Structure formats: C-alpha cells, structure tokens
Amino acid sequence: MAYKFIDNYREKGARKRLVKLLEKRGIEDKNVLKAIAKVPRHYFFDETFWGKAYEDIAFPIGDGQTISQPYTVAYQTELLHIEQGNKVLEIGTGSGYQTCILMELGAEVYTIERQRSLYERTIQVLPYMGYRPHFFYGDGSKGIEEHAPYDRILVTAGAPMVPEIMLKQLKIGGILVIPVGSEKEQKMMTILRVAEDDYERIELDTFRFVPLLGDEAW
Ligand code: SAM
To answer: Which residues participate directly in catalysis (predicted)?
Structure first.
C-alpha cells in the first residue's frame, strides 16, 4: 500500500463533518471528539480511497482486517474515560488509528497485533506521524503480563468470553472495554475492577467486530 501524508483543506473539512456526525450519533466526550478532529484518518488509507476515509464506515486494511468505524472508535474510547498519563493496553493494533486517538488523550499505549504484516506497517507509519506507542507482535488474548497492571484495557476484536487473565492485569479502579458474543455480533462490555476480586460489569450496545483469535479467544 502506498501511503501519502498530506492533510489538505478537503480532508480537514471532511474530518470536521465526521466529528459533527459523531456528535449527532451521541458521542459527547469533547476530548474524544477533539482527538477525532485531529488525527488524519486518511493517512491509514491508500490515496485511491481517501474519499472513503471520513465516511462513518469500517474499511478493509488488508489481510482480512478492517480499520474500525469512526463511531465504534469514538464509542469505545468514550467508555474508557482516559485520564492523562493512563497506562493503556490495546489489543488489536490493526491500522493504528485507534492507537493515535488514545495517545491524543494523553495515554501511554501498549498495543499488540497478531498479524505480522499489520504490525510491520504500524511500526513504520505511526512513528512517521509522530506517535510512539509501545508496539508488540503476538497473541494479545492473554494481555501482556510483563507490563501489567494497566489503568485501561481496550479490546478491538470480538471475543467469545472475557479472558480471566486479562481481568487480572487491570489495576484496582481500572476499566476493561471488550466486545463479547458470537462470531457474528457482540455486546460491548465495560468491566470495572472495584477491588482485588470484585468486578462491576455493564453490557451495552451490539456491534460487529472481526474475531479475537488466540489462546484465550476463538
Ligand atoms: N483498532 C484498529 C484500528 O483502528 O484500525 C482496528 C482493529 S481490527 C477491527 C481488529 C484487530 O485485532 C485486527 O487487526 C486483528 O488482526 C487483531 N487481532 C485479532 N486477534 C488478536 C489477538 N489475539 N491479539 C492481537 N491482535 C488481534
């Protein structure tokens, strides 16, 4: 894929319209909207498809994977309630767009991808754009034990259940956001670790994610 990093008036205008649309769809967190307004989503697309970059749709990024729909990115990010300096584990780097949004909110991001080609691409593209998260290649369905605990954990692929091992990597007061369900559709879940062995779970709207694959997943 040939990347080009030019952000001209056409893309800036389209990004503003996307932010307005997300507001209309119910995204309220001003900081999340500001981050969406800032990160050039078209940088993750081949120039041929720039016209699609600011539509509220998921889009193929190769290897059978997708860059998530902007609404989904905004929805999951809002649920995380990121605070400046939060240590965030993201499972499913994909294009890296969501990673940039998390970093715009002041998070220190640990991000893991199991598809080698996507991993190789993001380790080049993100630093070029000025984003330097901690990149990992491998199966994130087990979290990343060696860097735990995390303030927040975000899973960007659909899981069959909540991996117990992931819950244990949350700090007390930490939040996990994960879509859980069948391979066809999942309910968004937020899980707050209230105490060592006490978790509060909330089930929210239905989404359709690509499957989370791995030892603790499909
Ligand atoms: N957030 C991404 C973005 O903004 O482009 C989109 C993520 S895409 C919907 C889901 C990603 O999760 C895919 O890139 C997929 O390869 C990855 N994935 C699936 N199972 C995984 C696992 N066990 N560990 C790490 N990544 C995984």
So the answer is: 68
| Alpha carbon of 94 to ligand 1 centroid (Å) | 5
68 carries an active-site annotation: yes
Domains annotated for the chain, with CATH where assigned, are: 62-207 (3.40.50.150)
212 CA to centre of ligand 1 in angstroms: 7
Q: Which amino acid is at 109?
A: V
Average pLDDT of the chain?
96
Q: What is the pLDDT of residues 128-151, one digit of tens each?
A: 999 999 999 999 999 999 999 999
Query: Looking at this predicted complex, what is its ipTM?
Result: 0.99
Closest-CA residue to 31 (of 22, 40, 44, 43): 22
pLDDT at 66 over 90: no
Beta bridge partners of 153: 89, 176
Nearest CA to 40 out of 67, 84, 6 is that of: 6
Q: For residue 90, what pLDDT band results from cuts at 50, 70 and 90?
A: very high
CA angle 170, 173, 175 (to 5 degrees): 55
Q: What is the DSSP letter of 106?
A: T
Strands (E), the chain: 59-62, 65-67, 87-91, 108-113, 134-137, 150-155, 170-181, 186-195, 198-207
Ligand 1: nearest atom to the Cα of 157? 10
Number of CB atoms found within 10 A of residue 2's CB? 6
